[in-house]
Amino acid sequence: xxxxxxxxxxxxxxxxxxxxxxxxxxxxxxxxxxxxxxxxxxxxxxxxxxxxxxxxxxxxxxxxxxxxxxxxxxxxxxxxxxxxxxxxxxxxxxxxxxxxxxxxxxxxxxxxxxxxxxxxxxxxxxxxxxxxxxxxxxxxxxxxxxxxxxxxxxxxxxxxxxxxxxxxxxxxxxxxxxxxxxxxxxxxxxxxxxxxxxxxxxxxxxxxxxxxxxxxxxxxxxxxxxxxxxxxxxxxxxxxxxxxxxxxxxxxxxxxxxxxxxxxxxxxxxxxxxxxxxxxxxxxxxxxxxxxxxxxxxxxxxxxxxxxxxxxxxxxxxxxxxxxxxxxxxxxxxxxxxxxxxxxxxxxxxxx
Length: 352
Known about the structure:
- This protein has 352 residues and is of the alpha/beta class.
- Helix content is 35%, strand content 13%.
- The chain folds into two domains: 6-139; 147-298, Rossmann fold (3-Layer(aba) Sandwich), CATH 3.40.50.
- Helix 7 (180-190) crosses helix 11.
C-alpha cells in the first residue's frame, strides 16, 4: 500500500494519537463528539461506514459503553473484513474505582479479535500474556510534544532556572487513583523544607481545604489548565510529583521527559518502566508520606532526565514501529503477528 492507511482511531483526538495522523496514517472521522464517541460504539454505524477506513486502532476510552456493546462493535468490524489493532494502555483505568473498571473484562475479547496487539512496556506485555495467552509487541509511548515545542520548553526551562524551581503537583483530588493528600502529608512532614507548587482546579480546591500543608505550598488555583500552560509549569519545576495509587502507564511522565523535568512517582503499574524516575513505594495502596518525603529531599535529576535528541529520535522510531504494525495488520508485509517486537530503551527514555 503506497498511500497512508485510513485509520478509525479510538479515540480520534488525543496527544498520543495526533502524532500518527498525516505521518504514518490518515485518521478519519476525527470530528465525532468525545469522550463518548457514540457513533464509534454503534455496530450499525460501523457497518454503514466500514468503507471509510482501512483498519481500526483501539487505544482507550471504552469505559463509557457496556462491554457487550464493545464486543458487538468489534464483531461488526470483523464481519466487514476490517483489521483490528489493539494497543493496551490500561489494565487498571485511573479514572475509575477498581469495582467499576471493565478493563480486564474487555481485554480478552479485544485481544482475541485483534490482528496485531501492542503495549508500551515489558511488564504490561507480560501481564497481557498471562491474562490472554497473547504476547503483544512492545512499542514505547515516546514523546508527546512535537520536536519544536519540546525544544522551546527546554529552552524555557534553562532560561528560567527550572532545575532550581519548586516541585510540582498537578492535583486532581476527584480522581480516585490520585492520592493528593498523601503527597501533602509528605510536604507537611518536611515542614516546608522542600518548596512545592500545587496546581488545582477552582472546582476542586475545597476538597483540599483544612490540610496543614496548604500553608506551606504555592497554591495555584486555575479555571481549567490548558496544555501549553501545563507544559510551562512543568518546565519551571525542579521535579514533577505523580501521586498514583493504581494505573498502568503515564502520559504525564512522558510529558515531563519531553520537557527535561525529573519525576517522583510511586510503584503503581508499570510507570517506572517507561522512563527513569524516583520511586516512592506505596504503602497499603496509598502514597507513603515518609517514602515520598525522602524522595523529595534526595531528588537528583542527573540520571532521570533524557537528552532532547534522544527523545526526538525515539519519536521517529515510534512512528516507524507503528507504520510496520499497520502494514502487518493490512497484510502488506510478512511478519509473525503475535511475536514481541521489542524496542528496548538503551538510554533514559531515549534511543533504541
